[in-house]
From TrEMBL:
The SPT4-SPT5 complex mediates both activation and inhibition of transcription elongation, and plays a role in pre-mRNA processing. This complex seems to be important for the stability of the RNA polymerase II elongation machinery on the chromatin template but not for the inherent ability of this machinery to translocate down the gene. The keyword Nucleus applies. Residues 13-90 form the Spt4/RpoE2 zinc finger domain. GO terms for molecular function: RNA polymerase II complex binding; zinc ion binding. It comes from Suillus plorans. This is Transcription elongation factor SPT4. Belongs to the SPT4 family. InterPro entries: RPABC4/Spt4, Spt4, Spt4/RpoE2_Znf, Spt4_sf. GO terms for cellular component: chromosome, centromeric region; DSIF complex. It holds the Pfam family Spt4. SUPFAM superfamilies: RNA polymerase subunits (SSF63393).
Amino acid sequence: MASIPPQARSKQLRACLLCSIIQHPMDFRKNGCPNCEELMQMKGSPDRISVCTTTYFDGIIAVIDTEASWVARWQRTSKYVRGMYAVRVKGRIPEDVEAELESRGIKYRPRDQSDQD
């Protein structure tokens, strides 16, 4: 389960480019991404955190009950852990992650809302 960052650290928050969860960089470093660590491999890697997350995001959604939340379904986060998520994230995942998704038959959809259903 992701933690809710305290207000004092809010200017340092980063959003994962793949799942849009918002965490402090130290949380990404200590635990990785709670949703997509297998692909993003951020745990213990400041360089990986800087290319797989961004400080450029809009809006914050607190998701408590992921499966019952219509907002989580709308944001495509209903299968993820509860936590804070960005409404829109600016940036793209690294090419190696996108290639890995493609090899698994998963279509990458950027979280900047440029690829609408």
